[in-house]
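Reviewer 2 asked us to include a model.

Predict the structure of this chain.
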Amino acid sequence: MDRITKSLLNDYQDQFQLENYKEDKLFEMFSSYAVISHYARGEFDIQDVVTGGTNDSGIDGLAFIASGQLIDSVDKLTNLLTKQFQVVPEIKMIFIQSKTSPKFDSGDILKFWHGVKRFLVDESHTRRNKDIEEKAEILRYITEHPLNFESISVKLFYVTTGNYYGVKSETLEGVKQDIHQEIREINITRDVEMNFLGAFEIQKYYKKTKHRPFAKIKFERHVLLPEIEDIEQAFIGYLPLVEFKKLIVDQEGELKKGIYYDNVRDFKGEVNQVNQDIAKTMRSSKPDQLAVLNNGITIVAKKITQSRDMFHLEDYQIVNGCQTSHMIYHYFEEIDIHNVGVQVKLIVAENDQVTNEIIKATNNQTPVKREELLALSDYQKQLEDYYHSFERSSLRLYYERRSDQYAFDNEIKKVRVIDIKQQLRSFTAMFLEQPELSKLRFEDLTKQISGRYFLKNHQHIVYYTAAFALYKLEYFFRNRRIDSKYRKFTYHLLMILKYEINQEAKKPRLNSSDMEKYCNNIIHTLNSDLALNYFHRAIQLIEQLVPDLHNKSIPKSRILAKNIKKAVYNR
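Predicted model (structure tokens):
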């Protein structure tokens, strides 16, 4: 393995605190993370995509991506269809095979392809591990409900540490064409890509996960606004979609990552009435009316370099216009992007507080749910500061109240960053004692626990404790100290853990000063060599209460949480 790839592999291992992995397994995870990060929005659990092992069908990584969202279960896919889309615009199936060898061996490539083919035709008699079988359930749902998916694409990646263009041959090109043809003959899709990645290519994919957003656009029809306090510069104008495309689409034609995360709303799909109106305009004979019928896009950048009409944006985010941007993306191929444009407000502001005020103002002009503005609340800032108060490195976590807040800081390990979703899921399980809610869609979760979280009188230590417990449990799962078969009970284990550690101690109210002592005991224990032992004790209770650990419906049931309470109270 060359020095650069080895260095990036070490960086990945360090960022995700992966211990005692052999180099080939680590490279599988590294490759899958680098490739899938290119298509999936936000961070994801690598265990949800890595499939390598015995009976893996020759596939090391497998992911389904629907509109930028990683789909790891049929439930998540059906939720997407009921809550966001009537028809999913596109779903991508991504297959990855990784080799630490520098060779592009046609025999190994064909073995990989045969595994993919068996998966696509759903040869049920083929021996598969549980990871592959769970992915097969998703594929079955897709093929049984074809009207719910506008388009399907298949992307294969064969990754080595070699130089593909140095060994590129007619044989490999022939293999690629044969694979393309055979996939098309399966009649799932005709949109097929077979990609060979060498060291340089996989390095490039991984480096992209570290880059801040940047773009260069020609913004001819703009007006410079008068001087505004705390705003370095501000422009307003009309931007043709051919230029707007440069802001939201990367060189491979995919939606850019990391440019919507400050936006308080995720993409709602065409189920949303506003988006239906945008689609109607785009499909009409007068799509150029978009500029006057739509409220436009607000972009905040940390830095802009201007030369006449050319604007170079660095570290920018779309803080209002997420819905419009996604809808425009889906219609790029159907309209004249040179003669259709959109209103754009471009603001240069380095101050986070100013950015927050802009987000609040621009997103309050149309109805926005309270939970969608959570990241901008005063309590969030206080909680972020509370996290920073832990100076010991072993206790250091970073509360990401704004998504992507720490994404480009290489000094901060990714696994130590807790986002708002992880925070509320762990809190709901551990202290509200409703672990069955923790795996709901985030929007559904916040509805279920509305009025019971992030209250002004809540002790901050409660939220940190829940997050630290989740961090430690995920560490043990990642490093195979706890069997992955218990992963589905993650949130139930958090609920049990506090009882195992504090035993007879009564749980104080969330606003009580007694919560400090109660939580500090949990934190101290989790930061000691006893942590794993306490998680194993929690697992023993799960085993006593759950006769069938493979039953997927049990973690979703309220009954298990009730039985846990009975068991701990009757000791």
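The chain has three domains: 3-208, 214-368, 373-569. The first strand starts at residue 61 and ends at 66. We have added this to the supplementary material.
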